[in-house]
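Hey L., structure's done. Input below.
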Amino acid sequence: LLRPPIETGPPRALIHFLGGAIVGKAPHISYRYLLESLAKKGYMVVATPYDLSFDYLTTCDTILSRFEMVAATLARQYGALPVVGLGHSCGSVLQLLITSLFPDTPRGANALISFNNKPVTEAIPVFEEVVAPFFTYVAARNATRSSGSEILSVGLQLAKSATVGEVPYEFLETLEQIPLLIDEVADGARDFVPPPAEVKAAARRAYRARRTLIVKYTEDPLDESDEIEDLLQ
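Output:
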C-alpha cells in the first residue's frame, strides 16, 4: 500500500496493480519505481501479490478477496474513490477478467500494459515437448506427489540461505510458485483456465470499464495490445 504525499491533497483515485507472471508475487520490488511514481502523482496504490496458476479464475478470486479487505479500510478513511485497474502482461489479463466476469468489482478505468493472452504453448514454445514432461517427472520422482515438488522447495530454501544479503528475500520468494506449477502440470494442466479464446469472448461480451488505456512495448514479441484494442473498441 502506497499513500500519496499529504501535500498533494486527497487521493485522485485508487490504483489496484497486478504484476506479471512470477514477478507479480513481489510487486513492491519488481515494480517499485512505477508504483512509487504513481503515488507521488497523487494516487493511492494497492499492489496485490499473487501466485501464478493455470487457473485464472481462482487467482482472480484470491486477488479480489485480498484487495477488498484493504479497499474497505481505505473507503472508511478517504471515502469512495474511483478504482483504476493497472496490470502488466499476465496482470493485464487478470484485470480484463476481473472487469468482465466479476460484476461486484467495478472499475472506473483500466490500464493494460503489454497485454499477453497467448496460450501456454505459444508463450513457452517447448512447453509440450520439454516443460510438461519434465514437470510431470519431477512431481512423480518419489512415492508421493508432495515429495516430488518438495525437492525443489528444499532447493529454493537452500538458495535463499546462500544468497542472504545479495538478493532481496522477497524476490527469492517468487520462486516458491514453481513447485505449485509443477504439481498443476502433473495433474494435467496444459493451458490457462479460461483459455485465450474464452478470455476474448468474455471481454467482448461483458467488459465494463468506462475507459481503457493500452500500453504497448515495441520490443515485446509476446505483446498482443493491438489485438485487445481491436476487441474492446
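Strands lie at 14-18, 44-47, 83-88, 109-113, 211-215. The radius of gyration is 19 Å.

-- N.
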